[in-house]
Amino acid sequence: MTYDHRHFPAAPRGESLKQLGLRIAFLVLGSVVAVDHVGYAQVVSPPTISKAFGAATIPLGGTTTLTFTYANPNAGTDLTGVSFTDTLPSGLIFPSPSGFSGNCSGTEMFVGTDTVSMTGGTVPAGGSCFLTVGAVEGTTAGVKNNTSGNITSTNGGTGNTASASITVLGPTPIPVVPTLNESGMLIFGLLIAAAGLLLLVRRH
Questions:
Q1: Where in the sequence is the domain holding 149, given as residue range(s)?
Q2: For residue 130, what are the contacts with CB-CB under 8 A and spacing of at least 6?
Q3: Tell me, what's the pLDDT at 35?
Q4: What pTM was computed for the model?
């Protein structure tokens, strides 16, 4: 910022050059503080989000919960219009019925069996909220990695994404019991016969 010397007040009669300099310094300092305050007041940080499954592993066909935690890092400003969407990877679904529980405002809804969204939420200054989906079901075995879309807000802009993983365990394999084929049965029978004959010979 530049200053035109013509805008500075002239020193009144009897005011020394030092006193005029002090007045000018205070004027400049006040302008800098005012500009800095206005610039700071306009900065609103976006919301943040994280997520977690209720269990690290579930059996095939089993269920667990999925919880989203989203927060407002701004100490003096509420975040409004907070929204996010999460689509499950292949092998996970939201079974019906599967409800919601949470502690903040907003509209939650399912889109099909694999997508959940929350729109129009408000997170108070410096606060955090949670949204828990009642059930996520594993339909195929394996490690399932899930990443949400970016969380957004009307006055804070776009924030981060959230990621979590869960392992769906496959069915327990049935142990294989070895069986004898016809040749094996014949050999087994001959061994029994030989053992019986040897026993008879020893008795006589």
A1: 48-169
A2: 67, 68, 69, 70, 102, 103, 104
A3: 44
A4: 0.68
